[in-house]
Design a protein that fits this description.
There is one protein chain. The protein has helices spanning 51-61, 76-87, 150-162, 178-184, 192-199, 204-211, 251-265, 269-283, 289-292, 296-305, and strands spanning 15-18, 22-28, 43-49, 66-69, 71-73, 96-98, 103-109, 115-120, 142-145, 167-171, 187-191, 217-221, 227-231, 234-238. The strands form three sheets. An eight-stranded mixed β-sheet has the order 4-1-9-10-11-12-13-14, sandwiched between helices. The protein has a four-stranded mixed β-sheet with strand order 3-2-7-8. It has a two-stranded parallel ribbon with strand order 5-6. It is 34% helix and 23% strand. With 306 residues, it is an alpha/beta fold. It is globular. Helix 3 (150-162) runs parallel beside helix 4 and helix 5 crosses helix 6 (204-211).
Length: 306
């Protein structure tokens, strides 16, 4: 008797995150070292990181079913990061692995939460293609991109646009994937730096206005000053939630992961912004991006107190 054909594999998730995975080496320092200076760290932590990978974990911790597409090397850092993603409930079946080293970030955090980051990744790490995504089997409610893996991300953004699947672009620093993605994604969530570097504007407000000519909805995050936004002719601002800052690493990832989770749930605009802002603020209250990502209960509690 012949075996029955197994059913096709499907990826029915709330949020699909596409982009960078790395491993973070986090050093707590009393000041950022200067040229030719040796410094001693008072604490150290190692954990998974990367903008899209952190956003995937953030969305999962907020109750969204989540999958991640990105690259991890077959080294000790890749093994550890994959285990962390699986433990967080992120679907990792689409993670691509290879002999090239896992991307690494050395992060130096001061007592006031300010940090410096040095990242290393081999060229192949950003060279996934549309062939790595089983489009016919994917049914996400929302997709998040971080501008990395540009060949894959642009193809997937076009695929999503044709199917009216909402997309979120985490636009932190300018790279080659952003030129097309800013014009393809439903929500462009940009850092203050990106809003000015990408547009050449002299202020985040001016940068936002220029970005709004390219994307249906634009959010510009301003750190402790909150955020500003524009949708069509509508504009607004939201102050940051007051929290005791320990480490700002990962705050943007928490914000974007929560934003994608809220989009998948169909949240109204102002509710969505508050939800994402609360997640980002809570991430600042603990050391490390991945350990700092809040739970749904913590976000709800902060929203109720505010």
């Amino acid at each position: 008797m012949s075996k029955a054909t197994p059913p096709p594999t499907h990826y029915d998730v709330d949020v699909l995150c596409v982009g960078l995975a790395c491993y973070d080496l986090i050093f707590t320092v009393d000041h950022h070292p200067g040229p030719n200076e040796k410094a001693r760290a008072s604490a150290f932590m190692g954990c998974g990181g990367g903008t899209a990978a952190n956003a995937a974990v953030a969305a999962a911790q907020l109750g969204a079913s989540t999958a991640f597409i990105g690259y991890l090397g077959t080294d000790i850092y890749g093994d550890q990061h994959l285990a962390e993603l699986n433990d967080a409930g992120v679907d990792t079946r689409l993670v691509v692995r290879g002999e090239e080293a896992t991307s690494l970030s050395a992060i130096f955090v001061k007592p006031d939460g300010a940090r410096s980051i040095v990242n290393y990744r081999e060229a192949i790490v950003t060279r996934l293609t549309p062939a790595h995504a089983p489009f016919a089997q994917m049914r996400p409610k929302a997709i998040l991109f971080d501008g990395h893996q540009p060949a894959l991300a642009v193809a997937m953004a076009k695929w999503a646009r044709d199917r009216n699947i909402p997309t979120v672009l985490d636009a932190d620093t300018v790279n080659e994937g952003h030129d097309e993605l800013v014009r393809l994604c439903t929500i462009l969530a940009a850092s203050e730096r990106f809003s000015q570097e990408f547009t050449g504007a002299d202020s985040p407000q001016a940068g936002m206005a220029m970005l709004a000519r390219l994307a249906p909805a634009v959010i510009v995050t301003l750190g402790e000053r909150g955020l500003i936004w524009q949708r069509g002719a509508q504009t607004g601002a939201l102050p940051a939630f007051p929290v005791k800052v320990v480490d700002t690493t990962g705050a943007g990832d928490a914000f974007h992961g929560a934003l994608a989770a809220g989009v998948a749930q169909g949240m109204e605009w102002e509710e969505l912004l508050r939800f994402a802002s609360a997640a980002g603020a809570l991430c600042c209250t603990r050391r490390g991006a991945r350990p700092g990502l809040p739970s749904l209960e913590e976000v709800r509690a902060l929203l109720q107190r505010a």
